[in-house]
Each structure stands twice: as structure tokens, then as C-alpha cells.
């Protein structure tokens, strides 16, 4: 029976998605996309976005402030996850150490409280585009994380060298 061979494969022959993915060109492309989005968002919020927010009505300005905070939080989560995965790809962390980082790098859930269309329409178009891009990227990364996590055992938490990079990201977004 030809089909029976597949059912009784040696588990050591299986491919670990996490190890394979973080070493792939697809991951490098995802990493560049995520970090570029972080840079573009920081530049926008610190420059043109600040100017545009001053022109908004009071209600729209409050919406702008809350949505820009959500956006920066989401991007911090994305960047932290990407940095941890890159550390695995470069051999700075093992897969089990990366799993330990999961206690610090929380990807969160997709917000169930989307703004009403009228409130979104009051936001500057650039901010709307950045929010949409970040939401889509966040969803992709959450999916990838679930696939990678299925491959890894859950180890006990411990300190990691990636934590310092995450602190730098947090500090950068606080000043923006």
C-alpha cells in the first residue's frame, strides 16, 4: 500500500516550519516590510501627521490620538516579534529561547472595536493607510506565529539579549 508509507514516517523526518521560515527569503521580505512600516509610521507621526492632526476637529483629533497610539502599539508588537525571529535566524537565540520571549512579545488580538466608518473617514488618508497596512501585517504575523508556535515546546521564561532591543523600540515610540 503506497499511501501507508506517509502515515508511518519517522517524526525526525518532519520539517520544522519555524526553523525553515525564519531562514527563508519570505521571512527576510516580511522583516523588511515590517521595519519599513515602523520607520514610515514614525516619520509620519513625527512630521506630517502632527501637522495634519492640528487641522482636525476636536473629536477627530481625539480619534487621531487614540488610533495613533493603537497603531504604535501594534507596530511595537510586530517589530518585537520580527526581531526575535531574526535573532533565531541569525543564531542569536534558539527556538526554545524565542518561545520564552513570547511571554514578553505579546502580539495581542485584533481589535474587535473597530471605529465607525464616519470616524475613520475623519482621519487623514495617510493615517488610514498606515493603520490598514499595520492591521493586515499584524494578522499575517499572528498567523505565522501560531504556525511557528505549534512547532515549539513551551519552555520556562528567562532573560534574553533581545529584550534590550525591544526596550529601545518602546523608547523610540514614546518620543514620537
Secondary structure elements and pairings:
Blueprint: H1 4-7, H2 17-22, H3 25-46, H4 48-54, H5 58-89, H6 95-101, H7 117-122, H8 125-151, H9 162-175
Helix pairs in contact: 3-5, 3-8, 5-8, 5-9
Can you describe what's shown?
The chain starts with a helix and ends with a helix. It has a single domain, classed as Helicase, Ruva Protein, domain 3. The protein has helices at residues 4-7, 17-22, 25-46, 48-54, 58-89, 95-101, 117-122, 125-151, 162-175. The relative contact order is 0.17. The longest helix is centred in the middle third of the chain and has 32 residues, at 58-89. The protein is built from 9 helices and no strands. With 176 residues, it is an all-alpha fold. Helix 3 (25-46) runs antiparallel to helix 5 (58-89) and helix 3 (25-46) packs antiparallel against helix 8 (125-151).
Number of strands: 0
Estimate the strand proportion: under 5%
Domains, number: 1
Can you tell me the CATH class? Mainly Alpha
Helix content: over 70%
* Uncertain runs: 1-9, 152-156
What is this structure, in a nutshell?
The protein is an all-alpha fold and 176 residues long.
Please name the defining characteristics of this protein.
mainly alpha; Helicase, Ruva Protein, domain 3; 176 residues
Amino acid at each position: 500500500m503506497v499511501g501507508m508509507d506517509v502515515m508511518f514516517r519517522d517524526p525526525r523526518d518532519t520539517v520544522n516550519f519555524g526553523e525553515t521560515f525564519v531562514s527563508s527569503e519570505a521571512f527576510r521580505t516580511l522583516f523588511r516590510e515590517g521595519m519599513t512600516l515602523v520607520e514610515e509610521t514614525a516619520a509620519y507621526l513625527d512630521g506630517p501627521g502632527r501637522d495634519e492632526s492640528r487641522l482636525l476637529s476636536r473629536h477627530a483629533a481625539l480619534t487621531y490620538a487614540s488610533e495613533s497610539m493603537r497603531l504604535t502599539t501594534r507596530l511595537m508588537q510586530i517589530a518585537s516579534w520580527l526581531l526575535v525571529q531574526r535573532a533565531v535566524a541569525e543564531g542569536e537565540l534558539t527556538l526554545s529561547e524565542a518561545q520564552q520571549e513570547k511571554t514578553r512579545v505579546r502580539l495581542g488580538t485584533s481589535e474587535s472595536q473597530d471605529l465607525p466608518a464616519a470616524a475613520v473617514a475623519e482621519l487623514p488618508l495617510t493615517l488610514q493607510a498606515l493603520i490598514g497596512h499595520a492591521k493586515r501585517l499584524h494578522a499575517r504575523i499572528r498567523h505565522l506565529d501560531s504556525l511557528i508556535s505549534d512547532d515549539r515546546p513551551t519552555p520556562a521564561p528567562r532573560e534574553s539579549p533581545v529584550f534590550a532591543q525591544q526596550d529601545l523600540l518602546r523608547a523610540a515610540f514614546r518620543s514620537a
